[in-house]
Design goal:
Largest sheet of chain A: 9 strands, mixed
CATH class of the largest domain in chain B: Alpha Beta
Strand content of chain B: 25-35%
Strand order of the largest sheet of chain A: 9-8-7-10-6-1-4-5-11
Order of helices and strands of chain B: EEEHEHEHEHEEEEHEEEH
Structural class of chain A: alpha/beta
Distance between the termini of chain B: 61 Å
Number of strands of chain B: 13
Oligomer: heterodimer
Radius of gyration of chain A: 22 Å
Number of domains of chain B: 2
Strand content of chain A: 25-35%
Number of helices of chain A: 8
Bound molecules: flavin-adenine dinucleotide
Helix content of chain A: 25-40%
Shape of chain B: globular
Largest sheet of chain B: 9 strands, mixed
Number of helices of chain B: 6
Largest interface: A-B, 99 and 86 residues
Number of domains of chain A: 2
CATH superfamily of the largest domain in chain B: HUPs
CATH architecture of the largest domain in chain B: 3-Layer(aba) Sandwich
Structural class of chain B: alpha/beta
Chain lengths: ~325, ~260
């Protein structure tokens, strides 16, 4: 059997879990296994009926009063208990920040590891070979797992399509799981004061990455943004260095945007950046490294120095607009 | 108050990577190296905690070949008090559990109040060394920590975790605890000349680990350049200015935004 993790906050689904269901169903077909979903919750989770509408063997609500608000200790204990009862071959999860927090702990406790952030898999002789990105997306690695089941696998957001998960009917089973002492107290999650710039409405975005080298050089990018009537955005290192405020950060921990045109200047294209802009209509990348992963998702690419390309771009745009 | 900071040497971000002859890792010859990005922030946060408390010790620890001493020396120059070097070649062949176990063996007897690590390495990106280490040391952990309420330190500590899409959450931890630090938590200091001089007198203790096979280890079978998924029109043929001219033409005729 394969167990798939359903992530939620106050019984509201994290939709990326549907991608995990799709991944688990696909693996199950290839290996001749069945899939059951696991929802840790402090009550008979309202989400269970929704998840029961997918093609699953059963939906297990792993219940304990300590599972109301997420803590790594409570989730690790709950999962350990469920795994010992169900003896799964595989445990499949979406590679979310929450999963990163507790899954390696559960695995380690059972003498296992997580093969994390996978983008695809192949099945050979009843076992999986998983592919993960390494070196911030510059290379792929095919990975196998040793030892006995269970094997823990997490998939990158977008590796499977949530709307491809197969519908069906499943029974809901509620079990009381053991949770020991919790060594941390969680407060309520919150959002920082609303961003002062809303880049989700931008038609054109000029985004800068570490390739811009210094805060002074932001003027170069700004000149292009001005010529195009675009908004300026950035990758994380630019905001980490406080060259631009965090509300201009694009990516998994920043804004998710889909402008008509996205121009990436000196951005390598790490997955945490790409998830925030891959749905842009047209993606342009200017990067001096021909192998930069950003070119994999770009419609137009210029291999070269952005400090040479941008002034010419500005000049030509002005001509074109004149 | 003792804080151990784990730091790793990784390939430089701007290095041009080539797949190694055995196709199981990169060719590391002639590759410049640097300290893993988030580990630098972990060190900075530890130094700030010590400064805020006015006393304590910051111990840096790395697992790596002799070349990784550079990382430790740099950390000592920035203000760390001493260093532990778990010396091992070909760390890239170790699985996350093996790495965490070797480090746990080396630091368990230190009984640190806090262990800080970067949230993941920029090479193998397993993102689980810290979490496994906490489990092996029997202490609680928090990942992707973006703020530490240093003033709250008192047998417990409040830390802010980054969640997705601009969400955050505060947690209060009983100490000892392990935190994996997100980049951007605070601005990193440079080593001063005085710091560099002082570092020469600081202790770096070499430890030879016993690394045992681990049944559940994941194994890299093959490393290769990612397959291209999209047809990208490459412009300018390597000439940036020519590329710029061609791009404006495309923006006008194909994308129609000009
Ligand atoms: C949990 C987590 C969350 C994260 N959240 C985010 C997020 O929300 N947003 C985000 O962006 N990142 C995020 N990151 C970080 C991400 O993994 C990358 O480290 C980051 O996106 C890299 O930024 P960059 O491309 O600007 O820098 P680098 O990867 O250093 O790339 C710089 C690029 O500039 C090019 N370059 C250099 N000089 C020039 C020049 N003169 N002309 C042209 N090109 C040049 C180089 O070839 C290189 O490709 C997150 C990471 C983690 C682990």
């Amino acid at each position: 059997m394969i167990l798939v993790f359903i992530e939620h906050k106050n019984c509201v689904l994290n939709k990326v879990s549907l991608e995990a269901i799709a991944a688990a169903q696909s693996i199950a077909k290839d290996l001749g296994l069945k899939v059951s979903a696991v929802i840790p919750c402090d009550k008979d989770c309202a989400l269970a009926e929704t998840i029961a509408q997918y093609n699953l063997e059963k939906v297990i609500v792993a219940k304990n009063p300590k599972l109301g608000i997420y803590t790594p200790d409570a989730y690790a204990d709950a999962w350990e208990d469920v795994i010992k009862r169900e003896n799964p071959q595989y445990v499949v999860m979406a590679h979310t920040y929450q999963v990163r927090d507790f899954a390696p702990k559960v695995a380690a406790r059972l003498g296992k590891e997580v093969v994390g952030d996978c983008i695809r898999y192949t099945a050979d002789g009843g076992k999986l070979t998983l592919t993960r990105r390494i070196f911030l997306g510059k290379l792929d690695a095919d990975v196998t797992v040793g030892g006995d089941a269970p094997y823990f696998v997490t998939f990158q957001s977008g590796a499977f399509r949530g709307d491809n998960s197969e519908k069906g009917t499943a029974n809901v089973e509620s079990i009381d799981v053991n949770v020991g002492d919790i060594r941390m107290e969680a407060e309520e999650p919150f959002q920082e004061a609303k961003a002062s710039v809303d880049l989700t409405k931008s038609e054109i975005i000029v985004a800068v990455g570490r390739g811009i080298k210094s805060q002074e050089n932001l003027a170069v990018a700004q000149s292009l943004a001005d010529a195009l009537g675009a908004d300026l955005a950035a990758s994380r290192p630019i905001c980490d260095a406080e060259w631009l405020p965090i509300d201009r950060q694009i990516g998994s921990s920043g804004q998710t945007v889909a402008p008509k045109v996205y121009i990436a200047l000196g951005i390598s294209g790490a997955i945490q950046h790409i998830v925030g802009m891959k749905n842009a209509g047209t993606i342009v990348a200017i990067n001096k490294d021909a192998e930069a992963p950003i070119f994999d998702i770009a419609d137009y690419g210029i291999v070269g120095d952005l400090f040479e390309a941008v002034p010419t771009l500005v000049e030509e745009i002005k001509k074109a607009k004149a | 108050m003792k804080i151990i900071v784990l730091m790793k040497q990784v390939a430089n971000k701007d290095a041009v990577l080539r797949v190694g002859a055995d196709e199981k890792w990169i060719d590391e010859s002639n590759i410049s190296q640097q300290t893993n990005e988030s580990d630098g922030y972990a060190l900075e946060e530890a130094l700030r905690m010590k400064e805020a408390k006015g006393d304590g010790e910051v111990v840096v620890c790395t697992l790596g070949a002799q070349s990784a001493k550079t990382v430790l020396k740099d950390a000592l120059a920035r203000g760390a008090d001493r260093a532990i070097h778990v010396v091992a070649d070909n760390v890239n062949r170790l699985s996350p559990y093996q790495i965490a176990k070797a480090i746990a063996d080396a630091i368990a007897s230190e009984n640190a109040d806090l262990v800080y690590t970067g949230l993941q390495s920029d090479d193998a990106s397993y993102g689980q060394t810290g979490v496994i280490l906490a489990e092996l040391l029997g202490i609680p952990h928090a990942t992707i920590v973006i703020e530490v309420d240093r003033a709250s330190l008192n047998g417990s500590l409040r830390v802010k975790r980054e969640l997705e899409s601009g969400w955050y959450q505060w947690f209060k931890y009983q100490l000892p605890a392990l935190l994996t630090i997100q980049s951007g938590i605070s601005q990193i200091r440079y080593a001063s000349l005085k710091g560099i001089m002082a570092a020469k007198k600081k202790e770096i203790r070499d430890v030879t680990p016993t690394i045992e096979p681990f049944a559940g280890a994941q194994k890299i079978e093959k490393v290769y350049l990612p397959l291209k998924m999209k047809q990208t029109q490459m412009l300018g043929g390597g000439d940036a200015k020519k590329g710029a001219v061609e791009l404006v033409e495309k923006l006008k005729t194909e994308v129609r935004v000009l």
